[in-house]
Structure formats: structure tokens, C-alpha cells
Write a structure and sequence with these properties.
The protein is an alpha+beta fold. It has helices at residues 22-34, 58-82, 90-114, 148-155, 166-173, 186-195, 206-217, 264-270, 288-295, 327-340, 362-375, and strands at residues 9-12, 51-56, 115-123, 131-137, 160-161, 183-185, 201-202, 222-224, 227-230, 233-236, 260-262. The longest helix has 25 residues, at 58-82.
């Protein structure tokens, strides 16, 4: 079973696996996932998250063996007839050809129905084995002889994903997030989705490159086609320009050596600077008290509409969300506006009231809510009450 391909693979295990069960089956499957196949000269497998194991079923394995023996016997007899070693009448030869065709067809069906169970590697629980398995009943593959791979992927559409949103892609990488990295090598990032069991399982790297292209266009990520790491810093190669806030097709990513993904702030620092005319100093930012007072005033007026086909320069969004189910959609909308706005052209005021009958842990709120805001120098006020 090859290792190192950025595509999801299915391994059809030999028929002797049909007799394994319980702990013996799990131990054998774990050893299979952790090691490379014979074509790779042994060693540890890297792409553990891009593999599923198909298990043969014992009764169907016996049936497939019987059909294989029958097909081989009829094939051998047919060759002897053609070699004039056995003499048959024309009627007998037609009957032999019909039996051979039927046996071959039945052998194919037996083989397709042979693999009805699938083991999907997942991350083991803390303190247990590093690799665990989720068993999935895939049923007989039936008549889908020409599309077995697609049939299996369709069965696993909730476990092996054909696409990923730019938001989810950026969330997983955590570039620029508190405690997250400022840059990552592109090759290692793509490989991680097929190596680490805690990552989403992807059909191939194509949807990852699609998400990357959109994230760069939306200014969620930057992309350096060539760079090198010097100490703890990233240095672009001479003549290399960062891609940030511009559209490039997915096929323009992934083929360059020494390519890196970078956090938005770092991408900004790599972007060419331009000299602007001197403008009056901006007004001082309102204090926290002033912002809270403004929040009680009527919402801003909707900007005047622009003529059809023109590009407006001012956009105001007002929204209200009750409950936990839709907050993420609102966050996506705000994130999109942040990516589309000028560097200093985004103003957000948020008022959140959260309730929990079981009560909140004040230490957890302090660490997870208030401290990140303080570290980012974001003015805020918070109160915990009954």
C-alpha cells in the first residue's frame, strides 16, 4: 500500500483476515496502519489519515474461492479444447463458453460483495493506543464494478470530505492565532491532513488548495511562493512577492518548492509599501465608556444606495443572534468583511449577553475571554452576575 500520496486510499486486506476478530483483528489492523506496505521497504507509515482497511467476510470468502476454482477449471479446459488436446462437439464448445462467461461473471460479483466491512483509523483515547478504529458496514459493492472507489467514498461522505471551507481551513492551521504559528511550510501543511488522525480526512489535496486560494483572496492567509527560515524568522527569496488579497487559481499553488503559508499580519509586513499624501491626524479613538454609550443609540443609518454596476465604498451590517446555533454564521460574515475591508476601514461593536443556569467558571472566563482581548489591546468591559 503506497505511502505519501495526498489522496484517500482503500486497502483490500487478504482473505485470511476474514477469520480474525476482536483484539486480534484490531492489533493486526493497527500494525498495518502504522507500517508501510511491501513496496516501500517497510518503515513507519506517514499518511495514516489517508487510509481505510476493507475486511473480507468469511462466508463470502469461501464462495469467492469456490467460484475462482470453477473459473480456473473452465478456463483450463477451454485452452485444451483450443489446443486440440480435448475434442468437443460444436454444441459442447458453445456450452463450455457459456459456462465460462457465467462463472467469470459470478466470480466478479463474489469478489465485489466480498468486502462488506471497513475499518477507519481514528485517534485513540488519551492514555490508550494512539490508533483506534471505527467499523463501518459498507454492504456489498454489487454491480458498481467500474466505480468501486467512488461507491466507497460516497458511503464515507460524512467521514471523508470532498471539500473544506476556507474558514475551517484557516481555523485548523491557527496561523496568527494566540499561541499559533506565524508561518507554516505548504508541503508540510498539506501532508498534515493525511498524516495526523485528528485532522479532517480529505479525498485529495485538491479541496485544500481550493480553500487556500480563497483564503488568500479573502486576506485570511498570505502565501509566499519561495522563502527560507532563518532562526525564528521567515525571509522571502529575492524577487518573491507575497500573495495576499488577490485571486490566483488553485492550480497556481502547491507546485513551488520552499512555499510557505503566513499569518495575515506577517503577510501585511511582506507586502510592498506605498507612499501616501500627508493627511490630517485621525481623531482619537472613543473611550470604552463612549462606545458603550454609543451602543445604546439608534443603529447607524443605511448608506445611500449606489447605482447599478457601481462599487460602493461603505457597508453597514446590523444583525442579532439568539441562541448558540447561528453565532458561527455571524462570525463568518464578520470575518468576510474583515478580509474585504481596508486595513483601518473596519469598525465593529459587539454586545454579548450569555446565560447558563449551571453558572460560569470565572477563572475560565478570565483566561479564555478577557485575557485574549487584553493581549490584543481591545477595549472591553465584562461583568459576571446573577
Amino acid at each position: 500500500v503506497p505511502d505519501g500520496r495526498r489522496e484517500f486510499l482503500f486497502a483490500y486486506l487478504p482473505l485470511d483476515w476474514a477469520t480474525l476478530s476482536g483484539e486480534r483483528l484490531e492489533q493486526g489492523a493497527r500494525a498495518f496502519v502504522l507500517s508501510r506496505g511491501g513496496g516501500d521497504s517497510g518503515g513507519k507509515r506517514r499518511f495514516k489519515n489517508g487510509l481505510a482497511l476493507l475486511l473480507p467476510t468469511a462466508p463470502l470468502a469461501d464462495q469467492a474461492r469456490a467460484m475462482a476454482r470453477r473459473t480456473l477449471a473452465l478456463t483450463a479446459l477451454s485452452r485444451r479444447v483450443k489446443g486440440k488436446q480435448v475434442s468437443l462437439s460444436e454444441e459442447q464448445q458453445a456450452e463450455l463458453a457459456e459456462k465460462l462467461t457465467a462463472a467469470s461473471r459470478e466470480l466478479g460479483a463474489a469478489c465485489r460483495n466480498l468486502y462488506g466491512r471497513l475499518l477507519l483509523p481514528v485517534r485513540g483515547k488519551a492514555g490508550a493506543e494512539p490508533v483506534a478504529f471505527r467499523e463501518i458496514d459498507v454492504g456489498g459493492l454489487g454491480a458498481s464494478a467500474d466505480n468501486v472507489h467512488e461507491r466507497l467514498l460516497d458511503v464515507l461522505k460524512k467521514q471523508v470530505y470532498p471539500s473544506i471551507t476556507p474558514e475551517r481551513f484557516v481555523e485548523i492551521l491557527r496561523l496568527g492565532a494566540p499561541g499559533g504559528p506565524d508561518f507554516l511550510p505548504l508541503a508540510g501543511t498539506l501532508d498534515a491532513f493525511f498524516s495526523f488522525l485528528e485532522y479532517p480526512k480529505m479525498r485529495s489535496d485538491a479541496p485544500l488548495l481550493d480553500a487556500l486560494a480563497q483564503a488568500v483572496e479573502d486576506r485570511r492567509l498570505g502565501y509566499l511562493p519561495g522563502a527560507s527560515v532563518e532562526g525564528t524568522s521567515l525571509k522571502p527569496h529575492d524577487g518573491v512577492r507575497v500573495r495576499f488579497g488577490e485571486r490566483h487559481g488553485p492550480d497556481e499553488y502547491g507546485n513551488e518548492e520552499d512555499a510557505f503559508l503566513v499569518a495575515p499580519a506577517l503577510a501585511e509586513s511582506f507586502a510592498p509599501t506605498s507612499v501616501s499624501p500627508v493627511s490630517p491626524a485621525p481623531a482619537a479613538a472613543p473611550t470604552v465608556a463612549e462606545r458603550l454609550q454609543q451602543a445604546a443609540l439608534p443603529l447607524p443609518e443605511t448608506p445611500a444606495p449606489v447605482a447599478r454596476g457601481e462599487r460602493g465604498t461603505h457597508y453597514v451590517l446590523t444583525a442579532k443572534v439568539d441562541g448558540r446555533d447561528l453565532w458561527y454564521k455571524l462570525g463568518q460574515a464578520i470575518s468576510t468583511l474583515a478580509g474585504k475591508s481596508a486595513k483601518d476601514g473596519l469598525h465593529i461593536e459587539v454586545s454579548v449577553e450569555a446565560r447558563n443556569p449551571a453558572g460560569f467558571d470565572p477563572v475560565e472566563l478570565r483566561n479564555a475571554v478577557q485575557e485574549p482581548l487584553e493581549e490584543a489591546d481591545i477595549p472591553h468591559q465584562a461583568a459576571l452576575g446573577k
